[in-house]
Every structure is written in C-alpha cells, then in structure tokens.
Amino acid sequence: MPEVAPELESPEIEQERMPSMSFLDHLEELRKRIFHALIAVGCGMAVCWWYHIALFGFMQRPILDVLRHSGLPEKLVYSTPTEPFNLYLKVSALAGLFLTSPYVLYQVWLFISPGLYRKEKKYAVPFMVSTIFLFVAGGYFGYRVVYPAALDFLVGKMGTQFTPLINIHEYTDLFLTVILGLGLVFEMPVLIFFLALMGVVSAGWMWRNIRYAILVIFIIAGALAPTPDIGSMIVFASPMLVLYTISIGIAWFVHPTQRKAREARKSA
C-alpha cells in the first residue's frame, strides 16, 4: 500500500508527530542548555556578591541561635586565610542559584520539550510553577526545620560539655548539603510526572514497589542527613514519603492509559 505523502497527512497526525533528534543533536542541545544555565547562575552569583555579608548573616543565624541558647561562644572560626573568601563565593553561588532558578528550570524544560507531543507541551506553565515552588519549598523546609533541628542535636545536646570551634568551611558545606539536597528531593513529583507522562512508570507499579521505595528513601535520607541518628533520618524521610504518595496520584492522572480513557469518555 503506498505511503501517504507528508502534505496529505491530516492536521491531527501532524499535530501528534514529535520532532526527531539524533543522539548528537541531543548532546548539542544539552550542552547549550547547561551553558545558558551556568551563565545565568554566574550572573546571579555576581549580583548576590554585593550582598554576601548579609547573606552569610542569614546563613549563620541557625548556628548562632543554637550557640546562644546553649550558652556557648557565638563565633565561627577559620583555619586558612582563603576560607572567608571561598565561603562568600559559595554563599553567593547558592543565592544566585535560587535567584535564577526560574531561568535554570526553563532551560530544563527547553531540553525536555522536544521529546513531547505538541499537546503535551501545554504543561509548560504548570512545570515552571511547580518546579520553582517545590525547589524553594525544599530549601525553606531545610532552613527552617531540618537544619535547626540537626544543629540543636549536634551542638545543643551533644556538644555542650565542650568548647566549640566550628570551622566556617565545614559549616558551609553542611548547610549547602542540607539546603540543596532538600531542594532537589522536593522535585520528586515533577520527575514522576514526566516519567508517567511518557509511560515509563505507572501508579500501579509505584504502589506495588512502595516497600522498595521506602527503603531507597531512607537510604537517601541517611546520606543527606547531617547526623546519623534515627531522628534526623525521619525528619528527612517524612517529606519524601509524603511526596512519593502524592506522586502516585500524579502518575495515575497523567499516565497514557488514563488520558486515553478520559478522551474516550469525552468522545462517547
């Protein structure tokens, strides 16, 4: 049977067709998006550098509160002359990442969107809003809940009988691990959304494997938690378990099987 010429195809078929890209094209697109994202973060970092003193004051507030409540000296230390400068660079980079996160996540969308059908690209605005909200919410949760609780345990309960000499380098690395780690962890529903949208995972598969998911969640929580105690792991794992449960509902709603069923009911 002869093939239908491209100009004779119906608009519906034309609308459903996905643009094809070779492997090298994907690599070039990825390089382009990473480059644009890094330029944006660099610009954000330069802007935030003008406020590095105030930003570090915001970052060190949790440890100063714990030291004050424990009756300990409210001072951080450094061991090499370059540490304060490196500290301000890290603080400015983190603030720049959060400042430019809308543009960075937009670059992620531009990389993903060529692999979607045209009717699926309507999720651009929900993707941007949800990813930005979840990333900021994860960082805020880490700053307001997880990090103070960890410091209270480490310094306020376990270290009161000693004189603390808290190095700014180690403190900053711990802060970045908690804040960025939770910011990325909170993106789980968005990741599940796209995997389910493409039919890679389903709600049934996620529910059947929930015991393994809980195990993986606690392994990740143990790796990210600043303390080895079970309390810190539970604080980290609790929002991840809630997000996984929400993700099951998202997977059920956007999976191709459910979308086809809804379209069939509409056309009936």
What labels would you give this structure?
disordered N terminus, 12 helices, mainly alpha, 268 residues, single chain, 75% helix
How would you characterize the overall build of this protein?
The structure is a single chain. The chain has 268 residues and is mainly α. Helix 2 packs antiparallel against helix 5 (101-112) and helix 5 crosses helix 6 (124-157). It is built from twelve helices and no strands. 75% of the residues lie in helices and 0% in strands.
How many DSSP helices? 12
Overall outline? globular
Mean pLDDT: 80
Order of helices and strands: HHHHHHHHHHHH
Q: Which stretches are poorly predicted, pLDDT < 50 over at least 5 residues?
A: 1-18
- Classify the oligomer: single chain
Gap between N and C termini: 31 Å
From the alpha-carbon coordinates, what is the Rg to the nearest angstrom?
23 Å
**Percent of residues in beta strands:** under 5%
What is this entry, summarized?
This protein is mainly alpha-helical and 268 residues long.
